[in-house]
Each structure stands twice: as structure tokens, then as C-alpha cells.
Amino acid sequence: MVDFNLNQAALTRKKIKGIIILGVICLFGFVMLIPFLWMISTSLKISTEVFATPPQWIPWPPQWINYLSAWAPKGLPETFNTYLKNTLIITFFNTLGAIVSSSFVAFGFARLRFKGRDFLFILLLGTMMIPVQVTMIPQFILFRSLGWIDTFLPLIVPNFFAISAFNVFLLRQFFMTLPPELDEAALIDGCSYFDIYWRIIMPLSWPVVATIAVFSFVYNWNDFLNPLIYLNSSQNFTLALGLQTFTTVYGSSYHLMMAASMLMLLPIIVVFFIGQKYFIEGIATTGLKG
Amino acid sequence: MKSSQLESVWGYIFIFPWILGLLFFTAGPIIASMLLSFCEWDLITPIKWVGFQNYIKMFTQDPRFWKSLYNTFFYTAMSVPLQLVAGLTIAVLMNQQVRFIKVFRTLFYLPSVTAGVASSIIWMWLFNPDVGLINYFLSMFGIHGPLWLASEFWAKPVYVIMSLWGVGGGMLIYLAGLQSIPAALYEAASIDGANSFQKFIHVTLPMLSPIIFFNLVILVIQSFQIFTQAYVMSGGSGAPADSTLFYVVYLYQMGFRFHQMGYASALAWILFLIILGATLLLFRFSGWVHYEGNTKGK
Fold first, then answer.
1. CATH code that applies to domain A70-286
2. pLDDT number for residue A252
3. What are the structural domains of chain B?
């Protein structure tokens, strides 16, 4: 009887503790969500509602037209059609380039033996230490001398040369976990090394390839510094640059700025929810951020 | 050809794209940047060798360099400890057995994925001094909120607060670490009569210390490189009165606005040295980090 009461008390205590923890989590979660909720709320208001005190959370009636006004803003030479198209082109090629070149190089480092391999791999890891600001200026001068300024080439081309040591490292670590007998058997069957890479190792590695794809997508979608350096004319702007230009013109029209921000964030949020498994696994397994 | 030779040749073929990338986009530019930092060049007039002039000028005659250094150190010193604690706190909460925990994990991670221009604009709106949500919230407690981004004193804290919104990436790394702590250690502590707080201090923290250290190093490196938010929220100027002129913003201005390629390269090398120095310093004082399987302590 005494035992039963003790258990009961312990159980109630555990329940109360659980409720308190859930309450704290909900509170923190709500605070994290406020910026998003406030963005959505503001994006659906008319300009007088935007400045109302106390702030109104539910705009009524919702002004969906704000999204159209933000998409094709008056007084700016381009619509978001242009920015979206440019961003899609750059993001697509960079993601493709990153996957193809990093996996190719990682295969060499992970599964083939050659002189100097370990030294070169340490060199590769060492390049992660150098901040981008060091190489940024000579790269700019190089691309300028090639006449590539105000084109997408400086943004895209380096990605086809395994420029991200992080990607190579991640793929190499994964390739190392696959049994070497796979390669040996394939060689006996008359496969070339390229066949082993393309037809055996790559199909087995799609989870880590997906991780790199989602990281690359997010990175390129959000990237601001590189487009800022290389793209000058507005018809070449990416979403990040276009949005920044938008704020310089529409700085006080918060409802339109929030609608434009929402347009930029929506694809990221969608990709994030589809690919969240890969984000979380990618970070958890390597302990690194993208 | 012998099969081992064939393997070697293929090995070099596979890593060849990276070798090219290294030469043209990494190693080549590193050497070029090193040389440029001893030159003066505005992209138009002929390039001129000036020796250590850029570095001397930077340290002796450039108040904006010191200002940007101060701003960046201030931001790092404020945001890194807060981000470390906030990330760990949320990770501990996310490690509890409660309902919908996966939904919450996603929610806390989301802001670190959306970081960039759009997020910066959202925060500009939240910190609007007249009608922003944050000053409205403060006014409910009778506090008259500051001018935030328009105030020399309050502009940097805006970036510190913003950085806390992005702790999700660090949180996930902590979480992976928390989940790999063996349950047996907690059971043993319970048998010894430890309460939750004691378990956290004597089991969780030591076991997690390598991960805390990792996050610390990464955060310091990232904080020194703060750029996009600061550029968007000050229009690239570092206003008001250079109080948000962070180091990389200044470097960008020098290189791509004033086209002082040599001076900007010198700035980049000083940044590299600062980051390297900070990293080495953190390693030097990493005696508190507990590595499992290392019986000799450090």
C-alpha cells in the first residue's frame, strides 16, 4: 500500500515536471515564431493598419494584393520574375556542380590508393581554415580580367571544381563506410573505376548527396556577398540582391517589404520541410554546419 | 599497366578537378592576396609595390580600422557566450521526452536556415523604434524603448539579439552530443543520490564539453565574419556613426567601393591572423574539455 502511494506520488511529480517542460518549450517556440508570424501578419495589411497601436495581429480583410504589388514593384526596373529566374539558374547549376565535382573528387580520396593522397587530403582540409575574405579579392581580379563581371560565371564556375572542402569531406567520410569488397568484385567483373563511382558508389550514397543538395540550395538561395560583388545590372540580380534594392526604395512600406521577404523565404521553408531529415542527419553525423 | 599503377592514374584523374580548383580559386588567390597586401592598386593606375605601408597605415593612421575591429570584438564577446548558453538550453529541452518534440526541433532550427536578407528585413521591422513590435512590448512594462538601429549605443545589441534567433544549428550539434551520452552514467549518478541539477553539472557538462568547445570555435569564427545582416540593415554604410561598421563590412567597402585592392587584401590577412589567433587561444585554454577515453586528463 505504501509502495503504491509512493509510485503514485512519483508519477504525479513526473507528470507535473513534463507539463512544466512542455510549457517552457511552448513559450520559447512561440518567441522563435513571432518574427515569422509578424511578417505574415504585416504582409497582409493596408498601410494604415501597419502603423496601428496597439499592433493588430489579424489583418482583416487580408490584403493579398500586397504580394502582387511586391512582385512587380512600381518604380523599379525589374520584377521578381527576373530575380527568381536568375536565382533558380544560379542555384541549380551550383547545386549540380557541387554534387558532381565533390563526389568525383571524394571518390578518389576515399577509394583509390595513390602517392601523396593523404598529404593532399590534409591540404584540402587545411583550405577550410582560410576565410573567404582572403581569396575574395584575387578571385575578383581574376574574373574581372576574364571579362566575367556582371555575368553568372564567377558565381557558378568555381562550384564545378570541388571548391567546397566541406562537401568533399562529407562525401569522403560516407564513401569510406561502404565495404571495399564492392569495388573488388566490380573490378573482377570488368568494371572501370568510373563505373564503380557512377554505377555502384553513387547510387548507394543518395542520402548524403541529398544532404549536400539541400545545404547547397539553401546556401545559394541566401547568398548575398558573392552576388553583391559580381552582379551590377538589375536584370542580373538574384532574389537576395533584388530584395535589398527593394528595401532601399520601399523602406517605409513595411507591408510590401514583408510580402517581398515572405516571397523569398517561402521556397526555403518548403525545401526545409521536405528535406529536414537530411539537414538534421547531415549536421548530426558530421557535427558541422553547412 | 599493372593494376596498382592503373589505380594511381585513376586516383589522380578523380581528384584532378579539385587540383585545378585549388590552383585557380584557392592556392593561387592566397599567394596573390599575400602579394597584393604589399601593393597599392586601384584597378586602373599601374600596380605599385609599397612594402609594409598598408599594414603600417592600418595600425597607425586608420581610425575606421580600429572602430571596425572594436565593433567586431564587441559583437563576438556579447553574442558568442549568449549563443552558447541559449543553444545548450534549447538542446537540453529538446532532449526531453515530451509530445510533438520533433515539431519543436524543426521550429527551433528553421530560423538558422532562413538567415539572410529577408530575415534582416524582418528584424529591421521588429526593431523599428516608433511602431516596431519590440518597443511596443517594452512599452507594456512602461519602458520607453531605445532607437535601436538609429542609436550609436543600441545598434550593436540588435545584432546580438538577432544572433540568438539563429541558434538552431548549434542546438542540433548539442542534441546529437546529448543523445550519445550513455544512459548508464545517469543511472549510476541516480544510485549515488544525485538530483537533476547535479547530474547536469557532473555528467552532462563534462560529457558534452568537446561539443561545447567545437561550437565555441565555430561561433567565434562565424562572429568575426558577420556581414550580410550588417550590410542590409545599415545599407552597407555601418551607420550610425560607424557603430555597425563590422570588420568584413569595412573590408568590403575598401575593396569593392573604393577599389583599394591592396589595402583590402591586407585587411583580409589581418582578419585571418585574428581568427587563427583566437582559435589557437581557445585550444590553448581548452583544459576544461573532457575527452572520454583519455585517462591522463588533458
1. 1.10.3720.10
2. 82
3. 60-284 (1.10.3720.10)
User: Is A131 in a helix, a strand, or coil?
Assistant: coil
The answer to whether B34 touches B269, Cβ cutoff 8 Å, is yes
Start-to-end CA distance of chain B, whole Å, equals 50
Closest Cβ–Cβ partner in B26, B269, B271 for A127: B26
The pLDDT value recorded for residue A103 is 96
pLDDT at residue B296, as a whole number: 46
> At residue A230, what are phi and psi to the nearest 5 degrees?
-100, -25
In the block, cell 549536400 appears at: A212
Which three cell numbers, joined as nine digits, stand for B248? 568584413
User: Model ipTM?
Assistant: 0.89
Which residues face B48 on adjacent strands?
B40
Nearest Cα residue in chain A from B260: A137
Give the residue extent of every domain in chain A.
2-43, 70-286
Distance CA A153, CA A158 (A): 8
Q: Is the dihedral of CA A36, A41, A43, A48 positive or negative?
A: negative
Q: What is the pLDDT of residue A288?
A: 45
Tell me how close the Cα of A1 comes to any Cα of chain B, in angstroms: 24
With a cut of 90, say whether residue A251 has pLDDT above it: no
Which among B232, B200, B158, B47 has a CA at the least distance from the CA of A241? Answer: B232
Residue A129's pLDDT band (boundaries 50, 70, 90)? confident
